[in-house]
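Entry 14. Structure prediction run on the chain below.
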Amino acid sequence: MLDDLDRRLLEILVKDARTSLKELAAQVGLSSPSVSERLRRLEERGVIRAFTVEIDPLALGYTLQAIVRIRPLPGKLHIVQKLIEEIPEFGECDKVTGDDCFVARLFVRSIGDLDGILDRIADKAETSTAIIKAQPIRRRPPPLDATAPRDKAKILQAS
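Output returned:
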C-alpha cells in the first residue's frame, strides 16, 4: 500500500500542502524529481485527491454552522439530494444508513438564513438540526501509521 517515504510525504503535506518539492525532497532525503514522481503515483492511485485551501467560514461572515440530519419523504430522495447539491451553504453532505438518509454541514450567517434554507427542504424532507458550538477535531485524514489497528479486535486489544 504505502511505504514509509510515502507516509512521510503525506504527513508533511497534511501539515502544509504548499510545501515545495525542494523542501519535501530535503525533508525525506530524495531528489525533487523522485518526490515529484512519488506524488504523481500517489495521485494516480487516488491516495492524494487534491491539494486544497482551508477557508475560515467566520472570515466570510458565516457565524453559524449546523449539522442537519435529513430524512426525505417517500419518493423524494433524489429530489432532496439534488436540492442539497444546489444549495451552496451546504459545505458537505454524507449519504448514510439509519433513520436519516443524509447528514450535512451547513454554513449560515444567521438563524434567519438557517430557517430560509430549511424551509426550502421542508415540503420534501424532515430535518433535525444541531448548531455547532465548537469543533474540537477539525477534518483530518485517517491515520497514516502502518501499524495502526486495521480491525475491531486489534482496536479492542489496544484498549
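The beta strands are 64-72, 90-95, 102-108, 125-131.
Filed with the rest of this week's runs.
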